[in-house]
């Protein structure tokens, strides 16, 4: 008789939990996965996938506009938001079913309900107890909002993905990934968009030049960007209109107020501190490089650990656990040089260090930049420019970071991420033949080092 009901019980059927469970199941481990909502998690149901479908939808606005410069006559196009939302939901149902089938094929038992850890080897679901040699917590995260008067009136990205009608005026608070992506989505569909951020620039953590360039392009697309602005309160009137009052006393009216001010780990009420699992201040589960918590039989992956909150990272961490525990192949996940993209309009792709990080970690760095109008915009007349940047270690010539703002940036940076991961030098970039005519070729043809003009204060 086996000592436990399962070799591994996973709590949370999102990207990380499913990836780990499937791989473990494929190695013959007896695995159960517990989920209280739908199979698929944030990425498939409330994040990456539905967001990207809406991004695709919004991008047609540009295509219709640009077509005129190439000789097309386009009737004023009409857009049907409920149609797109229904089509998106149908696709999510399809994907959820694929996830369910994949779990079934890997012989992973699916248990409906909320799992609570009652001891290092036992999880309770609706009063029933299941035991396992290992427990994996992969419960993800949730949107967080500040506690200010009227915050109950705001929506998060969860609700924004399912609004019954397209709002005419949208107010977005926050300057991170989610905020800029939804600003681009709503603007593309024709809504008036006001984005309010407390910092000087969007997207803290990204390269400063990219941040500035994105702000310029978003403003150029008609998004009203308020920087260095805090919100004091939010009111709703009898007609259902919202007014956001800034700390400076300015009032902005809208039909929807969306907050995208960060996400927090889903770790409350799981019984974790009670069984001795160490947590960080914001509720993030602390893990070592093997994804192991302070309780040796309990592991955690993905957003609930609040490190790099990206789907492929959660998947990589989850698979590493399955390799280590069930395939006699000890594996850790390498968190260095993780590329990422922001599906703003225009989008961003980035891998490696920003200029500021590189200067701090490597001292002297060489910078190569290009800002240019892509060929398509010559005939379309679109006044938008691509920005590209390479950050290079001056001593070793190693490329430390690649950053891009412009159409297809996520697709282009994925390839460059391999080069950066391999430690490619600027010389190797230069030796690579460009693909012509493309925007991407600029990454292998940048010759002139960029010398930043002296700051105004220094010049005076
Ligand atoms: P982020 O952490 O990216 O950004 C949060 C934003 O909210 C920042 O601009 C921050 O400002 C601002 N903010 C925080 N608190 C307040 C406050 N009290 N008042 C006003 N502004 C505030 O969070 P997101 O919610 O956008 O995304 C969460 C995570 O999800 C991301 O970090 C990312 O890992 C993941 N994600 C990834 C995507 C992708 O890969 N394309 C897409 C969507 C999400 P400040 O900069 O001043 O701190």
What does this entry look like structurally?
- The protein has 460 residues and is α/β, with parallel strands linked by helices.
- The chain has 13 helices and 21 strands.
- It folds into 3 domains: 6-142 and 264-326, 3-Layer(bba) Sandwich (FAD/NAD(P)-binding domain); 151-261, FAD/NAD(P)-binding domain; 346-444, 2-Layer Sandwich (Enolase-like, domain 1).
- Helix content is 31%, strand content 23%.
- Helix 1 links the parallel strand 1 and strand 2 (31-35).
- The radius of gyration is 24 Å and the shape is globular.
- The mean pLDDT is 97.
- NADPH dihydro-nicotinamide-adenine-dinucleotide phosphate is lined by residues 146, 173-179, 181, 197-199, 204, 260-263, 309-310, 340-343.
Shape: globular
Mean pLDDT: 97
Q: Return residue spans where pLDDT drops below 50 for at least 5 consecutive residues.
A: none
**What is the β-strand count?**
21
CATH topology of the largest domain: FAD/NAD(P)-binding domain
Total count of helical runs of at least 4 residues: 13
CATH class placement of the largest domain: Alpha Beta
Q: Structural class per helix/strand content?
A: alpha/beta
Ends apart, CA distance between termini: 82 Å
Largest sheet: 7 strands, mixed
Q: What portion of residues belong to β-strands?
A: 15-25%
Q: What small molecules accompany the polymer chains? A: NADPH dihydro-nicotinamide-adenine-dinucleotide phosphate
């Amino acid at each position: 008789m086996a000592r436990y009901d399962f070799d591994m019980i996973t709590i949370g059927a999102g990207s990380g939990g499913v990836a780990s469970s499937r791989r473990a199941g494929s190695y013959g481990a007896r695995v159960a996965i517990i989920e209280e909502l739908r199979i698929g998690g944030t990425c498939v149901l409330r994040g990456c996938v539905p967001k990207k479908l809406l991004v695709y939808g919004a991008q047609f606005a540009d295509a219709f506009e640009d077509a005129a410069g190439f000789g097309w006559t386009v009737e004023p196009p009409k857009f049907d938001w409920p149609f797109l939302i229904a089509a998106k939901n149908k696709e999510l149902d399809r994907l959820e079913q694929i996830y369910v089938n994949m779990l079934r094929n890997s012989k992973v038992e699916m248990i409906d309900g909320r799992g609570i850890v009652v001891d290092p080897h036992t999880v309770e679901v609706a009063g029933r107890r299941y035991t396992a040699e290992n427990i994996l917590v992969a419960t993800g995260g949730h949107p967080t909002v500040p506690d200010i008067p009227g915050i109950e009136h705001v929506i998060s990205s969860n609700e924004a993905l399912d609004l019954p009608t397209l709002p005419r005026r949208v107010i977005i608070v926050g300057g991170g990934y989610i905020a800029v992506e939804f600003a681009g989505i709503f603007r593309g569909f024709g809504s008036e968009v006001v984005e309010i951020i407390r910092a000087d620039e969007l997207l803290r953590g990204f390269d400063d030049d990219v941040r500035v360039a994105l702000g310029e392009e978003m403003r150029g697309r008609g998004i009203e960007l308020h920087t260095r602005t805090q919100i004091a309160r939010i009111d709703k009137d009898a007609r259902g209109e919202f007014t956001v009052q800034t700390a400076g006393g300015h009032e902005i009216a809208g039909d929807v107020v969306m907050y995208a001010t960060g996400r927090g780990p889903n770790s409350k009420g799981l019984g974790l501190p009670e069984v001795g699992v160490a947590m960080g201040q914001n509720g993030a589960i602390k893990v070592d490089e093997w994804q192991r918590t302070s309780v040796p039989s309990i592991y955690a992956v993905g957003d609930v650990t609040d490190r790099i909150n990206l789907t492929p990272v959660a998947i990589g961490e989850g698979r590493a656990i399955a390799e280590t525990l069930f395939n006699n192949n000890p594996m850790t996940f390498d968190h260095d040089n993780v590329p990422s993209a922001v599906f703003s309009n225009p989008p961003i792709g980035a891998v490696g260090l920003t200029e500021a990080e590189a200067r701090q970690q490597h001292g002297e760095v060489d910078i190569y930049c290009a800002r240019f109008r892509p060929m398509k915009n010559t005939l379309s007349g679109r006044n938008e420019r691509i920005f590209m940047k390479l950050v290079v270690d001056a001593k070793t010539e190693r490329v430390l970071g690649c950053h891009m703002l412009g159409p297809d940036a996520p697709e282009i940076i994925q390839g460059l991420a391999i080069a950066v991961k391999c430690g490619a030098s600027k010389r190797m970039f230069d030796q690579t033949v460009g693909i012509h005519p493309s925007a991407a070729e600029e990454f292998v043809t940048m010759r002139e080092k960029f010398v930043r003009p002296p700051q105004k204060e220094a010049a005076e």
